[in-house]
Design brief:
The protein has 401 residues and is an alpha+beta fold. The chain is built from six helices and 18 strands.
């Protein structure tokens, strides 16, 4: 494993073009420090790197997303809608998601996912598994008391979720972990649930596989991970040769890679019976093909990060947000088994003109899934103003301003 430290050298050098700048569009110094490992003596040395990505026209993403939201809302009320009958300009939103320059070309971002647990010990173990097993992951906010008899929620992530620049963020002093636009893992514990969604094996070590194969893994690119802590808190380590594949104590598969990314929560890998059909589905929601993200500079050519899987397709509503990796199931004739612990994949969007979003006069926002993808992945849509209110209402005292 490698221990990597990112040291910003100067203020962001955002592009003056109409495209939204990348979150990596600044010069940095990388100090790569070998850590103790009994697997390899390979050391990698990097002096300086300037990483930049480009974006494409945003109009198509906005139009596609808005048509998808219209169709999704209608589906929730059992209406059958052909999205092609809508004028794309009629529903295209002019507002970007927040004020981050990275999201200036899109009105939606993939914000993370929500998982369910039905056991209080599993709930606590899952939090410890992520926060102690993956460096930089921390509790962002919470809801629910200790008295029992109520749903408890914890949001984990690597930095502020707000799609705006936090007031305390200051270049070149602040780190990327203090910048906005981070995805989150929402862990939800319902004490009234009676059916276990995932039950670890008996004994000192958990070797129970994930319940279902719809989710291949949630990929995290972190400066360091700790396998001993994963095992201690109920994780089932499948393999750890260069990178680690592990089933969390809640039943969510996770892949950890040692590297540096703007947001360590990189993407959700989904197994598909037919990648083409899944890509077509996500295209209607505004998820388009993007450059496959890597956590390391050699882009999958070394022994610490795998290359993009063959025949896979990476899609996202923005090149600067979390995305979805569509993987072709090896056996096309075999049905995908849904992983019951995944409650929703969460998409945050800016309402179009004329949509009041979530103000005092609008109906309550439902966080229940609105549509389900071909691999049975439930998807919910959250207005950005609702997200901001929730962040303020549930933020930890030390994180609120």
């Amino acid at each position: 494993a490698l221990s990597i430290i990112l040291l910003p050298l100067g203020a962001a050098a955002f592009s003056s073009t109409s495209s939204a700048p990348s979150r990596w569009n600044f010069r940095s110094s990388l100090v790569v420090r070998p850590a103790i490992s009994n697997k390899s003596n390979h050391h990698e040395h990097v002096d300086r790197v300037s990483i930049s990505t480009t974006t494409t026209s945003s109009q198509s993403r906005r139009s596609l997303l808005q048509k998808g939201l219209v169709a999704a809302s209608a589906a929730a009320t059992n209406l059958i809608i052909d999205a092609s009958q809508y004028d794309k300009n009629q529903y295209a939103a002019n507002a970007a998601v927040g004020t981050l320059p990275e999201f200036a070309d899109t009105n939606a971002i993939c914000h993370g996912l929500t998982i369910d647990v039905t056991d209080s010990n599993q709930y606590e173990e899952t939090i410890e598994f992520f926060t102690k097993g993956f460096e930089g992951m921390k509790v962002l906010r919470e809801r629910g008391g200790d008295g029992g008899g109520m749903v408890k929620d914890t949001w984990l992530g690597f930095g502020p979720e707000t799609p705006n620049i936090p007031p305390e963020f200051e270049l070149p002093v602040s780190s990327l972990s203090q910048y906005g636009g981070h995805s989150s893992l929402h862990i939800r514990y319902d004490p009234f649930a009676t059916t276990p969604l995932y039950k670890r094996s008996s004994g000192a070590f958990n070797n129970e596989p994930a319940p279902g194969d719809s989710i291949a893994y949630l990929q995290l690119g972190v400066p360091q991970y700790r396998i001993s802590q994963m095992v201690k808190y109920g994780g089932n380590v499948l393999d750890a040769y260069g990178w680690v594949n592990v089933v969390s104590p809640s039943g969510l598969p996770v892949r950890g890679i040692v590297g540096i990314t703007a947001d360590p929560m990189m993407f959700l890998a989904v197994n598909c019976v037919d990648v083409a059909k899944s890509e077509e589905f996500y295209a209607k929601l505004g998820f388009v093909r993007q450059e496959y993200p890597y956590a390391r500079l050699n882009k999958g050519q070394g022994q610490f990060e795998p290359p993009r899987p063959p025949k896979s397709v990476y899609v996202a509503p923005s090149p600067n947000s979390m995305g979805i990796l569509l993987l072709q199931n090896k056996n096309r004739k075999k049905a995908i088994v849904p992983n019951p612990v995944l409650r929703t994949l969460n998409v945050v969007y800016a309402p179009s003109e004329g949509d009041t979003g979530n103000n005092d006069s609008s109906p309550a926002v439902s966080l229940d899934p609105v549509v389900v993808d071909p691999s049975s992945v439930p998807i919910s849509f959250i207005p950005v103003d609702y997200l901001e209110k929730e962040i303020k209402a549930t933020a930890l005292p030390m994180l609120s301003n």
